[in-house]
């Protein structure tokens, strides 16, 4: 199941007012009455979007814009992602997103919908994405890479326990907080596998061979194996190589080889790779 998908595929959460026919640029701040939470959750630190004051733009994705915001009362900082009005999410999916609690996954505190946007209130990751880091730095040293791979695997293990396939593991979806910890973000292409109605969203460059074959894509193990493949591509990219380098350590080469095994039935699983010498005992 795609957590966020084209509106035509799903009933929207609560969008009583139709979106404007032409939507350009930064949306206006909507009135509180036009918002509805996926679940008015009294434990959420953000009850309405009006609790938040926009400070700066953190980044721009293909579906929308991410802002740094401050809670007007508590002054706590959050990231707020506003995405295209023609995308939708069901209440069940939004609730699943909010239930994910892991120190390896960017926390989603609340989901709101109004006539202009779908809005996700998220944990602020102060140091941006791995993508930004790769653009600024040449090669990440092995200890940094193995810690990174370990954290992504732990995040994937948590998602698998919830029967969720991420489906779009890539450097711009791996965010870094002020402590330098990497966490998995962006569930735009995710699927809760028990429902089984997969779609082909995601980013082609990070997709495993079996995922581009629509006849095969649809079994949960394939989905999980696809996330492992994407992890292998990310680790290789951090090494600034397109093929497994002979100059890399034995552990590094074997780890990437296990992630990038073409036959998904032989590929390393998340549980197996967590015990791989390249990532074992790294956090
Ligand atoms: N929780 C967050 N905290 C801090 N910065 C964030 C957060 N979420 C996203 N960003 C920043 O905003 C940028 C855009 O994020 P977004 O998820 O919209 O798109 P993307 O993943 O970069 O690209 P695409 O839409 O193609 O997948 C990210 O690259 C990151 O720099």
From TrEMBL:
What reaction does this catalyse?
L-threonyl-[protein] + ATP = O-phospho-L-threonyl-[protein] + ADP + H(+); L-seryl-[protein] + ATP = O-phospho-L-seryl-[protein] + ADP + H(+); L-tyrosyl-[protein] + ATP = O-phospho-L-tyrosyl-[protein] + ADP + H(+)
Query: EC class of this enzyme?
Result: transferase
The residue ranges flagged as biased composition, category Low complexity, are 31-45
InterPro entries documented for this protein = Kinase-like_dom_sf, Prot_kinase_dom, Ser-Thr/Tyr_kinase_cat_dom, Ser/Thr_kinase_AS
Q: Which residues form the signal peptide?
A: none
Q: Name one Pfam family in it.
A: Pkinase
For this protein, the record's SMART domains field holds: S_TKc (SM00220)
UniProt keyword annotations, A-Z: ATP-binding, Kinase, Nucleotide-binding, Transferase
**Recorded E.C. number(s)?**
2.7.12.2
> Which stretches does UniProt call biased (Basic and acidic residues)?
1-11
The ranges of region (Disordered) come to 1-47
* Positions of the Protein kinase domain: 52-279
**What protein family is recorded?**
Belongs to the protein kinase superfamily. STE Ser/Thr protein kinase family. MAP kinase kinase subfamily.
Listed name of the protein: mitogen-activated protein kinase kinase
State the species of origin.
Answer: Brassica napus
């Amino acid at each position: 199941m795609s957590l966020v998908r084209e509106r035509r595929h799903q009933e929207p959460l609560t969008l009583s007012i139709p979106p404007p026919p032409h939507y350009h640029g930064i949306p206006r701040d909507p009135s509180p009455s036009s918002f509805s939470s996926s679940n008015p959750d009294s434990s959420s630190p953000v009850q309405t979007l009006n609790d938040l004051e926009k400070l700066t733009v953190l980044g721009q994705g293909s579906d929308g814009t991410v802002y740094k915001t401050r809670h007007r009362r508590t002054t706590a900082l959050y990231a707020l992602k506003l995405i295209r009005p023609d995308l939708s999410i069901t209440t069940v999916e939004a609730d699943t997103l909010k239930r994910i609690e892991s120190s390896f996954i960017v926390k989603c505190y609340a989901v709101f919908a109004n006539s202009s946007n779908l809005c996700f209130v998220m944990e602020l990751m102060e140091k941006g994405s791995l993508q930004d880091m790769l653009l600024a730095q040449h090669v990440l040293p092995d200890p940094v890479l193995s810690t990174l791979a370990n954290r992504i695997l732990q995040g994937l293990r948590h998602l698998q326990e919830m029967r969720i396939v991420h489906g779009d593991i890539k450097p711009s979806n791996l965010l870094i907080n002020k402590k330098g910890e990497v966490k998995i973000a962006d569930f735009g292409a995710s699927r809760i596998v028990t429902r089984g109605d997969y779609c082909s969203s995601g980013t082609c460059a990070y997709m495993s061979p079996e995922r581009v074959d629509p006849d095969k894509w649809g079994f949960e193990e394939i989905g999980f194996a696809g996330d492992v493949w994407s992890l292998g591509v990310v680790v290789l990219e951090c090494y600034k190589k397109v093929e497994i380098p002979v100059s890399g350590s034995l552990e590094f080469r074997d780890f990437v080889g296990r992630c990038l095994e073409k036959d998904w039935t032989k590929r390393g699983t998340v549980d197996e790779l967590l015990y791989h010498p390249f990532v074992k005992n790294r956090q």
